[in-house]
Specification:
The structure is a single chain. By secondary structure, the chain is mainly β. The protein is built from one helix and five strands, in the order βαββββ. The strands form two sheets. A three-stranded antiparallel sheet has the order 1-5-2, with helices on one face. A two-stranded antiparallel sheet has the order 3-4.
Length: 70
């Protein structure tokens, strides 16, 4: 019996969501990291910065038997 892939929320350490996404992309694992973009003001410039919508989590689409591999 083959199980279909499902979406799982994976907990990551704070402020490392983008690094985890890059590693999952390298491993060719289907993932989703919702980001929100804000303009931040420094004393000398304004910059567009992306932050995770849900800090500390990334979503992966994998079969249940592969959950322990990651």
């Amino acid at each position: 019996m083959e199980l279909l892939p499902s979406w799982y929320a994976v907990y990551t350490t704070s402020r490392s969501e983008k690094k985890v996404k890059a590693r999952l992309d390298e491993a060719k694992v289907d993932n989703y990291l919702p980001l929100r973009t804000e303009y931040r003001m420094w004393s000398d410039r304004r910059k567009k910065v992306s932050f995770p919508l849900i800090p500390g989590y990334i979503f992966v689409h994998i079969p249940i038997q592969d959950t322990l591999k990651f």
